[in-house]
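In the design runs reported in the main text, the only information available to the sequence generator was the tokenized backbone. The following block is the verbatim input for one such run; it is reproduced so that readers can re-run the procedure and compare outputs position by position.
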């Protein structure tokens, strides 16, 4: 299930934003077919991160919607971002160093060794959200 927050449906004055019916219908079609991306505008605009690290974070965000973590290999991430596996390691380190992701090595009975990549939402809130504003995090 794609996690959308009421925050995304509020305008800058904290008033409900009316969604365009055509946009909403198209989003639902793409969501049903697993073709959506959970994008954080502040991440897209973060000039302190490299453009490839931002793209990688958006990809990880989308991959982690269902399980709460992404378990993609570096080769899979490299094929989606269009960079080498060694560059993916650098971008993952960049994201981990600023605290936006956390990686944990795991062992699966069925698949053997693997890795879970978790988004660090509490660090994202600290980094991107205004401290003087109250946000509603309840799912819609």
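Verbatim output:
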């Amino acid at each position: 299930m794609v996690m959308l927050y009421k925050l995304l449906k509020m305008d800058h004055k904290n008033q409900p934003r009316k969604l365009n019916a055509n946009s909403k219908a198209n989003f639902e079609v793409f969501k049903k077919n697993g073709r959506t991306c959970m994008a954080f505008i502040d991440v897209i605009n973060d000039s302190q991160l490299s453009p490839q690290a931002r793209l990688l974070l958006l990809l990880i965000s989308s991959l982690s919607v269902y399980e709460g973590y992404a378990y993609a290999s570096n080769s899979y991430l490299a094929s989606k971002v269009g960079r080498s596996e060694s560059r993916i390691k650098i971008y993952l380190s960049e994201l981990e160093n600023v605290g936006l992701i956390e990686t944990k090595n795991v062992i699966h009975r069925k698949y053997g060794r693997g890795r879970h990549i978790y988004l660090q939402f509490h660090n994202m809130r600290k980094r991107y959200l205004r401290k003087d504003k109250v946000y509603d995090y309840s799912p819609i």
